[in-house]
Structures are given as structure tokens and as C-alpha cells.
């Protein structure tokens, strides 16, 4: 099998309907749950972004459409526009690791190790991580998923600016509470500065745990208490560790590192 066909088949095996969890190969050709929305939508991949949020797939039936402010906020065009134009220099001053995204990317790549297969940047925002990964050219498949369509719009614009082809990153609008991935289908997941924005942290980490293959790795970062949980939901380092264990990771395979109000969660399935 040539390299492109192999990559496409691993993508087809990884992407699943967020409602029935079936992949393109296992979903019925006349699905009465989504009226074939899933099948039709995934044919656009990887060249165009796809919308696999449960509400879109199931057209609102039996699906909770309400999301908390900490999720909805990022859909505002002004937030998406300003996000990457304002924050990276502030992070680099020490708010997000010592050295900002450069350090975080290096730490994550070291943790993931060699032979990267299918890697997902979940809650990718403008894709700061996914784009770096694409430029590294060491992954078989890169998936960038976020709930905010406006953040994903910024990602597409940045890809053009960086000279990254649409085929190099599969862009999915998806919801952490019902991820569109088949069980055991991802080799590694990065989720940067996002846990505090999710509707429910344990559900989110559990969904990632289920999507990871055996030996698969999660590298996630988040801001921590004592930042006050007014809009976002900040945890302590101990709570973060407990969330990962409750989500399914073995306690020996969960590590939390903190630096001020910034925490890094490293887990191996
Ligand atoms: C602070 S930004 C982090 C963006 C990027 N990962 C980074 O490292 O800069 C948090 C992201 O989480 C996303 N998010 C919030 N709720 C989500 C949900 N329910 N499902 C998926 N992504 C969500 C937001 O849209 C936003 O892009």
C-alpha cells in the first residue's frame, strides 16, 4: 500500500460517528440515526474541515446543545482573531511553562517519542501545536479538533501562511464530551491549555482514554488553582491526577507536573 493510501485508511479507521461510534467501514450504508450525515461528511476529509459535533450529526435529537460559557466563549470571532495574536508573547514570559509554546512543544514531543502514528490535537484552538507537528513531518496522520468553528477558521488561515497543505492536517469540529474517534484508534493526544475550558473534565479525559490505543500517550496542560473558577474551572494538581485515574488511566501511568499556576498531565494507557 502506498503511503497516502495507508494514511487515508488509518484516518478512516480512527474517525467514528460521535453518536453511534461506528467508523466508515462499520457504519450502515443507510444509517437511520443520522440519515447518513456522518458518511457524507467524512467524504470531505482530509481536504476540507468536517463538522462531527453530536448536535450536527443528530440534528439536535436527544443531544444536549447547551454548552457552558467557558466553551462558548471561544466561538466568538473576536476571541479567535485575537487569541494567537496576543497570547504567545505573554506565555513566553513564563505564564505557560518557561519559554511558552516552544518549551511545551519540545516537552510533548520528547514524551511522545519516536514513530508517531496518528496524533490528535484536541481542543486545538488555532492549531499552534498541530501546525508545529505538521512542519516536523514525523507523523503518519495529524488530526486537529476543536468545538469552535472560528478557532478552526484561524487554523486554516495560519496553515496557508505557514505553507501547510490541507492534506497535512485533518480538521474536525468536534465536542470533547462526545469525541468522533473509534476506541483504541489514536497513538497520541495533545491537549494544550484546555481542560479548564471543557464542560466536564473527567468526561473529556475519559473520552481521550477510550480513543487512545494501548500504550497511547496523553500530554495535556491546564491552568490551576488558586486561579478562581469564575468562568473557567480550575483544579488543583491532586484533582487533576484524580481526574486522570477516574477516567481510566492506571495510577502508575499518571504524572502531574506543576509550575506556578500551570500544570502538565502526562498519561500512558
Ligand atoms: C485556551 S484554548 C487552547 C487552544 C490551544 N490548544 C492552545 O494550546 O492554545 C481552549 C480551547 O478549548 C476549546 N474547547 C472548549 N470546550 C470544548 C469542547 N467542549 N470540545 C472541544 N473543544 C473545546 C475551545 O474552543 C478553545 O479553542
UniProtKB/TrEMBL annotation:
PANTHER family: METHYLTRANSFERASE, OS06G0646000 PROTEIN. One of its GO terms (molecular function) is S-adenosylmethionine-dependent methyltransferase activity. This is Methyltransferase type 11 domain-containing protein. Residues 121-219 form the Methyltransferase type domain. InterPro entries: Methyltransf_11, SAM-dependent_MTases_sf. SUPFAM superfamilies: S-adenosyl-L-methionine-dependent methyltransferases.
Amino acid at each position: 500500500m502506498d503511503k497516502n493510501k495507508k494514511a487515508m485508511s488509518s484516518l478512516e479507521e480512527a474517525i467514528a460517528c460521535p453518536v453511534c461510534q461506528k467508523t466508515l467501514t462499520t457504519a450502515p450504508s443507510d444509517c437511520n440515526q443520522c440519515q447518513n450525515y456522518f458518511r457524507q461528511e467524512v467524504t470531505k476529509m482530509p481536504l476540507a474541515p468536517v463538522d462531527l459535533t453530536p448536535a450536527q450529526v443528530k440534528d439536535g435529537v436527544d443531544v444536549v446543545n447547551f454548552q457552558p460559557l467557558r466553551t462558548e466563549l471561544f466561538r466568538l470571532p473576536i476571541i479567535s482573531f485575537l487569541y494567537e495574536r496576543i497570547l504567545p508573547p505573554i506565555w513566553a514570559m513564563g505564564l505557560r511553562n518557561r519559554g511558552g509554546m516552544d518549551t511545551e512543544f519540545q516537552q510533548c514531543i520528547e514524551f511522545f517519542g519516536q514513530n508517531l502514528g496518528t496524533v490528535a490535537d484536541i481542543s486545538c484552538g488555532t492549531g499552534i501545536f498541530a501546525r508545529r507537528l505538521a512542519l516536523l513531518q514525523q507523523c503518519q496522520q495529524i488530526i486537529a479538533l476543536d468545538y469552535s468553528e472560528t478557532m478552526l477558521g484561524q487554523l486554516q488561515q495560519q496553515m496557508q501562511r505557514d505553507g501547510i497543505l490541507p492534506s497535512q492536517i485533518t480538521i474536525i469540529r468536534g465536542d470533547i464530551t462526545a469525541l468522533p474517534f473509534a476506541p483504541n484508534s489514536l497513538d497520541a493526544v495533545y491537549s494544550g491549555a484546555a481542560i479548564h475550558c471543557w464542560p466536564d473534565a473527567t468526561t473529556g479525559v475519559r473520552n481521550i482514554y477510550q480513543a487512545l490505543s494501548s500504550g497511547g500517550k496523553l500530554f495535556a496542560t491546564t491552568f490551576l488553582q488558586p486561579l478562581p473558577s469564575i468562568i473557567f474551572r480550575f483544579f488543583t494538581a491532586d484533582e487533576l491526577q484524580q481526574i486522570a485515574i477516574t477516567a481510566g488511566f492506571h495510577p502508575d501511568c499518571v504524572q502531574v507536573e506543576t509550575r506556578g499556576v500551570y500544570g502538565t498531565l502526562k498519561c500512558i494507557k
